[in-house]
Amino acid sequence: MRSIEVQSPGLLTTVQDLGRQGFGPIGVSPSGAADPISLRLGNRLVGNAEGAAALEMMLLGATFFFPEGAIVALRGSDFGATLDDVPIQPDASAEVRRGATLRLGPTRSGARCYLCVQGGIVVEPFLRSASTHLLSGLGGFGGRALRKGDVLRIGQATEKFRRRTIARRVAEQLASREVLRVTRGPQADWFPEAPHGEFYAGVYRVGEQSNRMGLRLEGAAVPQAKGRQMITEGASLGAVQVPPGGAPIILFVEQQTTGGYPKIANVISADLHRVGQLRPRDEVRFEQVSFETARSLLIEQEERVTSTGAILE
Amino acid sequence: MTNSAQFQPASDHSLLVYFGQQITLDAHHCVRKFLRSLELKPVVGVLNLHPGYCSVLVDFDALKLSHRELEAILRGRLERLESVPLPDPRELQIPTCYGGEFGPDLNDVAALHGMTPAQAIELHASVTYIVYFLGFVPGFAYLGELPEALATPRLDSPRRSTPRGSVGIAGNQTGVYPFATPGGWRLIGRTPIAMFRPDRDDMSFLSIGDRVRFTPISIGQFAALENA
Hints:
Helix content of chain A is 13%, strand content 28%. By secondary structure, chain A is α+β, with helices and mostly antiparallel strands. In chain B, helix 3 (106-112) crosses helix 4.
């Protein structure tokens, strides 16, 4: 069995796949990659199924030792990776020789970078998924972020090394943007100023306490809806909830499954992967689109991402 | 009663189904039946379900379904809601050691309502609660209703971390924190029972619709149960 040894864990490195759906009735949120499109494309670069388990790194990357070698790809933000001290190209498959060291540093672009390995990272599934759920300490590698000295198992190699890259056009279309598109939230009409009020006019900064559960935004306070009593209800991935203080929170992959704050908006599916690349102190604005537009944007994006032309051999 | 269900898109990948806008046993009954119907016979393209007090959030694959298509399917389910069988509610006990280090807010809660801590404990343990739904974090059950005389607002500023097993109250709800999480509920005690058990088939100690009572235990009994 091949393996990866963690020589330095980085800031927050976790095992993630596309998450576990269907356990909302017992309060378990899906978790999974914060930028699922990067995980999917990275897996395709190494010949894996799109949803194979990989390593998600945040802001500061890890250092890995490969005793038996592996076929890998880095996808997502640029963490200045080197393989035995030689820069390694992101968005491309690479062959790691026996005994080589892959070192990632601080990010030079967005928040997250994925290390995908041919055969996938092998962990005991929890509720049918390899994803780590940090808050509850479940799934992934012991339910926690990786530490120095951890040894991860790699699954069976599936093919010989093939050089693959991501089409530049596709990478550019997926690049981050300052404007997140949203649809109306279920309590949008509790905010009488929308869609012209503070929320859509303002620029928000991603707060330092943001994590996989949610992104806390700093900026113009969204005026509180008055005289309405919220009854706790299910909350969607990407929901923008507004607590009494008026500072919005975007609920993210490790979200609470239900919530008691009104939701003014919801990030569209096609932009959720961009939320996963937001760093603390990044600035965002919000633009409202219709549900129909949101759906066609998602369909277009899926066509681009899943097209055979997205990966070049 | 089911004809009154209201549909509201929550996002481009989810639809909220409301059974009124009040916490009532009727609405809870509809939530349970609707959830059960979708669990017994899943709808293709539906990914997840999030029950609430009087709503169910239906999360779907937007590449496979539109809001309109899903609403039509769900309306069909609502017409047959009464025939959905529900399991008999279970009756469960949550042994709880009240006050002291385990219930740092007990004295404040009692004082707020002009009673002694012992009276507050007695009141909290005097009624049978219903598990309205599970949500927030794995295994967290929203229990109601708290006796009116104990209804207390949340803390002004939530605790950064609430110990696992803490029994809290907020408004007319009560509940147990299955994990150490941030929380704004007032803590009156702690249970040694594991509310979420990933190594078991029935991971959550409580299920939607269960009937629950809290039984006061001493710190000695707490330690014994915790080590059992």
